Amino acid sequence: MKKLLIASTITVLTLTSAVTTPKAQAADIATSICEYVATDDKKRMRSFLKTNKLKIRRIFNGIQCNGKNLLEFASTSGSVKTGSLMISKLPKKVVSANLVFLQTGSQPLIDAANARVSS
Fold this sequence. Notes:
By secondary structure, the chain is mostly helical. It is 77% helix and 3% strand. It contains eight helices and two strands. Strands 1-2 form a two-stranded antiparallel sheet. Helix 1 (2-39) runs antiparallel to helix 2 (42-51) and helix 5 (80-89) runs parallel beside helix 8 (107-118). The protein is globular. The protein starts with a helix and ends with a helix.
C-alpha cells in the first residue's frame, strides 16, 4: 500500500511540474526577446533565437512588449538593427499590415519596411 501511495504521489508531482514548465519558459522567452529589442542587440537576439530553435515568423504574433507587437515596439524604442532584422524575416503581408505602426517611429525602419513591401 505504501509503495502504491508513493508511486502515485511521484506521478502526480511529475505531471504537475510538466504542465507548468512550458508557460514559465514561454514567459522567459518573451521577456528575453523584448529585452533584446529594447537594447537593439541584434547579435544576442539572433543567437537566442537559434539556441531555442525559434523563428521570428512563428513567434511574432504571440509576443507583445509593453502591449505592442514586436515591430511597433522596435519602432518606438528606436531599435533599428533588430527592427530591420524582423522586417527582413517576416512575410511581406505582415510587414505591410504593420506599416501604420511604423510611421511614428524611426525613419530607417520605415524605409526598410517600404523597401520590403515594394520588392
